Prior knowledge:
Elements: E1 5-8, E2 14-16, H1 19-28, E3 30-34, H2 41-50, E4 69-72, E5 78-84, H3 88-91, H4 94-118, H5 125-128, E6 138-146, E7 155-158, E8 164-169, E9 174-178, E10 181-184, E11 191-196, H6 198-204, E12 216-218, E13 229-236, E14 242-246, E15 252-257, H7 258-270
Parallel strand pairs: 1-3
Antiparallel strand pairs: 1-2, 3-11, 4-5, 5-6, 6-13, 7-12, 8-11, 8-13, 9-10, 9-12, 14-15
This protein binds fe (ii) ion.
The site of fe (ii) ion has 4 residues, from loops.
Amino acid sequence: MNLPIAFIDEANKLVFESSKDQVRAWELGIFYLKVPSWLDLKAARCFGQEILKADSPYRDIPQYGDLEGFISLENNQQTKLALRRHRWDEHYPTEITQFGRQLDDIGVAVIREVFRQSGIPEELWTEASGGYSSGQGTAFLNFVHYDTAHPDLGLRPHTDYGFVTILDATSPGLQIELEGQFCDVPVLDGHLVINFGEALNFITQHSNRSVAAIVHRVTSQTSSNPVRHGIVYFANPDLDGALKQFDVQGREVGSSSVGDLFTLLEQKLTNYK
Ligand SMILES: [Fe+2]
């Protein structure tokens, strides 16, 4: 599976090698991003491996609701440390918080390029994205590994609910659904994988260029595989916010509370189980 490749230029703009690649990325809903030279991925990967150790203090971070803290998921192999942006300073070392803020910059560059292509007038981008495109909204920075003691799928098929997901995975396992078939997304050295989510699909639906939210999963990891580590960043709308659909004339043609959209997606997800 050859995904299109993009990079972030000096003006912090998302750029593809050709417009054909960019169109394909929007249609598929997924692409590779060359790791920017200013991103210290190595330190973040080391941190992700440290937190696994039995004596790691990070294992004691409490759970905040269903989505944050040190969590073992029951319906797949993921064990993760997941935190929203406002808790990074409290729990993550300084360099990891800085790493998260650099992923914020990448997330904003991606969403701004999606808006640019969409034709939605720039003065509406902040409102349409519940603030994310100008540095607000919700961001998660999660460190994940796959517990092979459970004979389950690594991660069950789903679409992401938010705007943009940034992934660094150390081993294969990610698959995307294309025409009813799951295809491998190989680990490409020096590159992150970026995919779009449902909220971004929703807000671009009445524009010139909408983006797809691709169905993906992670294959079952076994003890003979190297331990699969992932760093996952989610750019999301605030859960208590709203999403607006604008057309290229700047008319509001639809809207949804984030809660209602996510409830709808949850119902769709249960159909995969
Ligand atoms: Fe996902």
